[in-house]
Amino acid sequence: MMSNSPTYRPATLLVHGGVDRSPHGETAEALYLTSGFVYDSAEQAEATFKGEIEHYQYSRFGNPTVAMLEKRLALLEGAEACRATATGMAAVHAALLSHLKAGDRVVASRALFGSCHWIVSTLMPRYGIATQFVDGGDLEQWRAALATPASLVLLESPSNPMLEIVDLAAVAKLAHAAGAIVVVDNVFATPLLQKPLELGADVVVYSCTKHIDGQGRVLGGAVLGRKKWVEEVLQPFIRNTGPALSAFNAWLLLKGLETLPLRLAAGCRSAAQVADFLAGRPEIARVWYPTRADHPQRALAMAQMSDGGTLVTFEIAGGKEAAFRVMNALRLVRVSNNLGDSKSLATHPATTTHMRIGAEERARLGITDGVIRLSVGLEDPADLIDDLAQALTFASLAKAAE
Ligand SMILES: *Cc1c(COP(=O)(O)O)cnc(C)c1O
Question: What average pLDDT does the segment 101-127 reach?
Fold first, then answer.
């Protein structure tokens, strides 16, 4: 069937993949806003619950619109199965807690999204699950930590906000030898730029809130992996704990996926231009962008990613005061803690997304008070560069006038 053929290229799969047309033959994916489903007979209900026939039961377990999104994401990722969740954090939480039990040991890269860090450092220890953190870019630390048996490895690459790259293939090898499954939070790379499963990961998680919606509208998440793991480990957890994605949000995410390749290509192109512009400004101490010649892990980034992504991180000389002056002088780029939107957004991680991890941990991660994370949107890059230029000039003039 055309719509489900895995032989099409990504852009085609993202428009047609997973489509399950109703008898009405609608062009756009149908939106099934229903909590439950009816049966032709009591016998059909019984057979459904016995697992003898396939029939939707309840939207906490499964929903036809959500299923279309799950199929499309699985085709794109090259995964055997996918479950969508209400948020990215629900996806991370379900992937970890469905697999782990008291006494298990986790190894994680230190540079994790704030709430992922909270789950492993604060929540899981309450249930007797211990985590050892390593510097994700240092293979020797992974080797040392995984010399002891472990159940699960959690990592993010590129990391938020310093865009550190983890060698996925090398870590997966070490993890498997230690008996661990590898869970990759692939949000910054997106499913188009990096394929963790091909590099040896077992499970990939997304916040669909970011580039997959890409237009700042809804929250959503997804977990992808092998059919057996998804059906036997993840699905019972999701079915009984209830992080289900609403059909309406699934429908918006399906439409978001249709334009993902176009949006991402434009965003990556603009981000690279913005990074080059920033690197040439005297106010900027340093710029991080994975494909730039001065990124310390450029070769690794180029080997495992097909492009640099839409995030640029830079450090203003002059710390928090200078960073705030620049952010407050921006007119087009808005101050926000979100990312992956069509609108360009600037974040000061030290006082927002990474405030709670504390000064010591921030210092270890290189998140100084002068660091700004820029999520590059779909505006004309020349307008973004003009805006950044006027903000940097205004901020340095304001400083000089003090
Ligand atoms: C945003 C984000 C999450 C959490 O996703 P939500 O949809 O906000 O719950 C997890 N990991 C990374 C890397 C993110 O950027």
Answer: 96
